[in-house]
Amino acid sequence: MFFHQxxxxxxxxxxxxxxxxxxxxxTLSEEEVDVKSDEILADLLMQYFMKPFAKxxxxxxxxHPNDTLDLNEVFYFSRQYFKGELGFVEFSKSIAKFLYEVxxxxxxxxxxxxxxxxxxxxxxxxxxxxxxxxxxxxxxxYLKVYTEASGLGVNYEEKAININKLDKGVVIVNVEEEExxxxxxxxxxNGSEAVYWKDDFLKxxxxxxxxxxxxxxxxxxxxxxxxxxxxxxxxDKADKIDLMNRSMNYFKTKETFxxxxxxxxxxxxxxxxxxxxxxxxxxxxxxETPFQSNFDIAAxxxxxxxxxxxxxxxxxxxxxxxVHGKRELLEKGYDEDKGMxxxxxxxxxxx
Length: 351
What we know:
By secondary structure, this protein is an alpha+beta fold. It is 33% helix and 29% strand. The chain has helices at residues 39-50, 73-82, 88-102, 195-202, 210-228, 237-253, 259-267, 270-287, 299-306; strands at residues 2-3, 8-17, 26-27, 60-62, 111-123, 126-136, 140-148, 151-160, 168-173, 182-187, 204-206, 256-258, 294-296, 312-315, 319-322, 330-335, 340-345. The radius of gyration is 26 Å and the shape is globular.
């Protein structure tokens, strides 16, 4: 978990980064912003920068396709700063210039780039120093009501920033340098231009921890049941829902994932188990994300995936049957006279 309640600003500077493909330029500040003398401003900026990360569950790492971390520009500049080899202002300028170089999609908006140095950022139970890099792209108009001699007046401010809507941000925590640091990322942009922040500018990959192991395995199993298993086995929708429900029950009631136990209790059929192992292996190879045989189940990942696990039988446009368990109490048949399929449900009480 990430906490910023005790965090404080060490440094803050603001630059402006335009869109290179639109022949816009960047503007670099020479001096830092003094936020320490204005407690209200500091609190507002801390809320603007940090609040979007409060529910961040995924922790990323810097990487480079050539497997040489020093070729990742943001990692390289960050490491220089953390080691005291690069001053804060020069560090921030290097970051702004590099962001400008990768801002080539014509739809990417220009905006202010805030670079901050933070102290007492808490991630996963430990406090560290950190770097924050944030970009504001979207502006809004705000009304301001004020008191005057005759009563109340109203004015406006165009192109103001909504402190509850951070467009893009990254927090780089000064820990586990050799593995690419611990990194949290936020990007509220939708569309084809959105990938430039995480992929082109930061070059991040997800840390393969318990959260990621849990979420990925649940996702792979869901896709396996929905898209693969009926290529080999004759299964109707109710059987698939039963397999999904059994897996969800496993992840909700167990503290630790054990591969052999999961295969036996959830899948059951030896041929289906073998098919799932092959399917899972293909995922590992394609995304270079190996699964562990045993890992602690991350409850937040289970909660996140629960909404995508569907347990509804949709019958034409007349009926929806919600199946929560006990597949044996649901019987499917075919009525020759009506020429239609039917389901028979067995139950004890009606509410």
